[in-house]
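Standup notes, protein team

Yesterday: finished cleaning the Klugiella xanthotipulae set.
Today: 3-phenylpropionate/trans-cinnamate dioxygenase alpha subunit structure.
Blockers: none.

Input for 3-phenylpropionate/trans-cinnamate dioxygenase alpha subunit:
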Amino acid sequence: MTAINLTPPSANPQTHTERGDLHRPAALTPTVDVSSLIDTTNGVVDRAIFTNREIYEQELRRVFAPSWLFLGHVSQLTKKGDFFTTYMGEDPVIVSMDQDKKIQAFLNSCRHRGARVCRADAGNTKAFSCTYHGWAFDLQGKLQNVPNEAGYNEKFDREAWGLVPVAQLDTYRGLIFATWNPKAPPLPEALGDMAWYMDAMLNRDPEGTEVVGGVMKWVLKGNWKLAAEQFATDWYHVNMSHASALMVLSPTGKGPVSGIANTPGRQYVDPQGHGAGFPTHPKSRFDAQAVHEHYDYDALRDRLGAARVEGPMTTGHATVFPNFSYLPVNGSIRIWHPKGPDEMEVWAWTLLDKSMPPEVKEAQRLYNLRTFGPSGIFESDDGENWSEVQAISHGFITNNTPLNYQMGLGSERHDGVYPGTTSELYSDAAGRSFYARWADLMNTPAWHEETE
């Protein structure tokens, strides 16, 4: 596969070649300075970041294109020829297992006229063929067949017109991530201390994890950041927004007792924009009873440490910047695909420990469906909130009225128990850090904008 040259021209631009190297004029990609829209010192955010089209287009270039993005789980690919399709930002992507059983990822767009070469969600194949003119590509994205190839002159080079590969691809405990950015730091470095918190969900079982039940997909009105930010930072909404769901799940039908409802806890605040919040009350585990009874918590403490078992393994929430989120207690993992400033497409999986007995896996799967997912009693509350926020944010006065992110200002510290910086559970600290990272990327030229 041949990567596309996205680097802007130098003072002495090279002549365009038959290999498809083009240099797009900077005037086609206007840049917005977002410095005045995010004030993390005072905890204030301008609503234009959720509604402005130019800001959204800049996000695709400077937030999504340079960042490590979640693609899927390794259990979705088990044999040669397996594939699934997804998105990185708004770019369609194929993830496949090639003949050497190596995971590949490349842009799902034919190099001839640009149609997708794969329109299925998942499956098994020997090649990807464009239905427009018939160009065909192998499992590594190499161009293998060109109908009427004799019509091209001797300069035509198949190797130069393969599907565009991601610059880097890596996995972390079964999760597949990739980036278009050849200069991005390695995935472990990009995750940093966040990996410790992720392990509360991903490293409970020596056999690892798997996803079951396929991918649930639905569309919501609302900016993708509203969802990603909430999962990073917002326990504050739980008792209010999810009051009816908590009543349904509680043994008495009246909701959790005050000690659990007003639980103590911590919130992890990552300079890379990641975030995680978690109660530390021992009974704050609103999972399926069969799952709760399955776990040997003493063994888990030996494996993961007491701080993880009594912290991020409880009913917590987390986001890996920019748009991958998860809920460790019920195994919900999801990605918020941006579909313009006013819409997102949510893709969610149920993640399970491999060694769970079948009946426990089924209990967890059903519990996940009932709580999160398109018909979940918690999920519907969240979607309504995000859609409501977005619905009124285009009003002139509304859009010019800033939002308050001041909860927990000054509470960030190293607490000596959890890695990195933490705040109180009821805090906007991780949200402020999320937007600080977002603003930094938005105001920094990405690798494809750097001049020679």
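Follow-up from PR in the comments: The chain has a mean pLDDT of 91.
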